[in-house]
Amino acid sequence: MMAQDSSAGGTGLAATRWGVVMIVVGAGVVAAFQVGKAPAAIPALRAELGLSLFAAGCVISLFNAMAVVGGMAAGAIADRLGHRRATLAGLALIAVANLLGGFASGGSAILASRFVEGLGFLAIIVSVPSLIIQAAAPRDLKFVLGLWGCYMPLGAALIILAFPIVLGPFGWRGLWWANALVAALYAVALASTTRAAAPEPLEPIGEVLRLWDDMKRTATSAGPAALALCFLFYSANWLAVVGFLPTFLVEQRGLAGGAAAALTALVVVVNAGGNLSGGWLLRRGVKRWRLLAFAHLAMAAASIAIFSTALPDEARYFACLLFSCLSGVLPASVFSGVPHHAPSPDLIATTNGLVVQGANLGQMAGPPLLAALVGSSGGWAISPLFVVGASTLGLGCALWVNVLERRRNI
Predict the structure, then answer these.
(1) What angle do CA 371, 376, 378 make, to 5 degrees?
(2) Predicted local confidence at residue 253, as pLDDT
């Protein structure tokens, strides 16, 4: 297990092992492929497998539901059984699930494969930050954790762009089998690259049975709770706006579906730039709480421009880019705070699991809440009210983080 000071968040390495950092971040990108592929594949899945609209929604949201229910448990298991081992197991589960899912003949089979994919996804995203911390020199830690924050926007954008290329000649099954191959090959590459990492002996069964205590200790700690809530309000806003952007562009602005998808993909990918900027700013000494607060304020301000009918479409789309890019400093800030706020060094993955639960709860709640608000008011003009409200709560959480870190001189 890890041997580091959680207050310092360092490993004592003289130099960052960048090869290890890049390969384990890439595992997160492979995991994010599984999230991004589902929305793009839904029309083909419904046509071939006869999925109902409800079943199609489950294919998309199953990962979120699993993360909300089991994020912290997955992190606690990874803390006890080993982060490298959990990451490799996650890649293996994704490979097997995609291989078998490609042969699915009905809704039950594809949902079962998605459930197994979800287990693999959770194993990876709660474990990789700990592997990054082990490979990073203290001076680079904030930046490399910001780099980790890019895994979701980068993976989702890549799969959105790749889907039309694969769908034509190979169909959705070809995309599933391609994901199986990528995950399997990536597991081999990661195993080889990280072989020199510190060994992770299996702990006695009595230690594994302490998982409940680990989760209770983490969930009742102020720091992890504050970080998770910051992520919750951010993700609720981000997915509510970006998730409905294609619909808004097609239905309200009259764009073709392909153009709307391309514009949305760009909005997604600039979020990765925000993550990198967040890591760089943290490394330059900017306080974490300031970046958390800035992200929520930027989302609130940009949302007013996005839904303003007084502005031209070009200005409103530019506001979408700013909304995603500027708010991208928040994931980097949250992930960098995990090793500092974890109750102990051996509960970093458990703390990441709580953060993942917060993020996915926001993603589950944000879009339907915004849809209900828009539906009840009869128009999108009311949308900034939702974003500003969630951002205000997020700002309060950022101030809470400030109080906690000032007390501990972080």
Answers:
(1) 90
(2) 73
